């Protein structure tokens, strides 16, 4: 199946046609296209779990979306079959009900995610607010903090880019994670004070940050600014280390591999 055909089938699937006419097997489009879309929306790394990426992006799993649309389609078909026209208010009410059912099923699936636990644990308690917010876009560096996939020692060590998961920016040399960057690292104390004040002083755990972000555009902007400033500095330091380090596996890396691992914004 070529890319054009895949997208055509994906579109049909989203329209619910697979469930109503049984022409397009849903399994054909559940893999790579469904996984790449939310990752692209949140400007994240391809290593981010589908469950976390789709939640951050507000993209429900396609089978749930298709079920909703198929139900709407059937409802309209029955109304027209009686020689009537669908009433806009009735249609909107039915659609809202189905959206509620979709959210319940989606939330249940996120009870036991296969990966992306920290992200899902932070967003799931405010899921409706996150999906329905009228402010705030995800940036490359904000997504790094929200997912832990980015310029952090633990992540870089995991993908073979660092010899150790330790932080290069503080004397304690603790494991460098998104949470260490947000809450502990001495190097970002000044930026942390500004962020803490903007989110109400309730602490900088990921759940607190996310709750503040969905509650206020000011807090969202403060979190985005913190991530932009801190992650830019971490990326610059990482590039300097990459140039200066004697790390044979890096020197052998092919051009294709370098492109895949590039930590610059996609
Ligand atoms: Zn540190």
Task: Compute the number of strand runs.
Answer: 0
- Whole-number mean pLDDT: 84
Shape: elongated
Q: C-alpha Rg, in Å? A: 22 Å
Structural class: mainly alpha
End-to-end distance: 27 Å
H/E element sequence: HHHHHHHHHHHHHHHH
Number of domains: 2
Query: Helicity, in percent?
Result: 55-70%
Strand content: under 5%
Main sheet properties = none
Bound small molecules, by name, code or SMILES, are:
zinc ion
Low-confidence regions: 13-28, 251-261
Number of helices: 16
Briefly say what this structure is.
64% of the residues lie in helices and 0% in strands.
Structural summary, described in words:
The chain is mostly helical and 266 residues long. The chain is built from 16 helices and no strands. The radius of gyration is 22 Å and the shape is elongated. Zinc ion is lined by residues 167, 169-170, 174, 176, 180, 185, 187. Zinc ion binds at residues 167, 169-170, 174, 176, 180, 185, 187.
């Amino acid at each position: 199946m070529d890319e054009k055909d895949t997208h055509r089938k994906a579109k049909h699937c989203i329209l619910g046609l697979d469930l109503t006419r049984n022409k397009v097997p849903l399994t054909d489009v559940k893999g790579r296209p469904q996984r790449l879309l939310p990752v692209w929306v949140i400007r994240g790394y391809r290593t981010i779990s589908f469950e976390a990426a789709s939640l951050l992006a507000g993209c429900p799993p396609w089978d749930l979306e298709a079920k909703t649309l198929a139900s709407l389609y059937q409802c309209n078909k029955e109304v027209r079959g009686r020689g009537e026209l669908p009433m806009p208010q009735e249609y909107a009410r039915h659609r809202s009900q189905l959206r509620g059912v979709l959210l319940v099923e989606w939330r249940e699936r996120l009870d036991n995610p296969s990966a992306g636990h920290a992200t899902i644990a932070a967003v799931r308690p405010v899921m409706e607010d996150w999906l329905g917010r009228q402010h705030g876009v995800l940036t490359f560096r904000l997504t790094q903090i929200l997912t832990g996939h980015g310029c952090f020692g633990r992540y870089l060590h995991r993908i073979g880019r660092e010899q150790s998961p330790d932080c290069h920016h503080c004397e304690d040399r603790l494991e460098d994670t998104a949470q260490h960057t947000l809450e502990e690292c001495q190097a970002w104390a000044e930026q942390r004070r500004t962020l803490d004040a903007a989110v109400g002083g309730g602490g900088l755990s990921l759940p607190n940050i996310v709750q503040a972000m969905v509650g206020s555009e000011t807090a969202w902007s403060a979190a985005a600014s913190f991530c932009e400033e801190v992650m830019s500095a971490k990326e610059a330091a990482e590039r300097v280390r990459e140039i200066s380090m004697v790390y044979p596996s890096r020197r052998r890396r092919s051009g294709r591999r370098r492109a895949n691992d590039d930590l610059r914004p996609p």
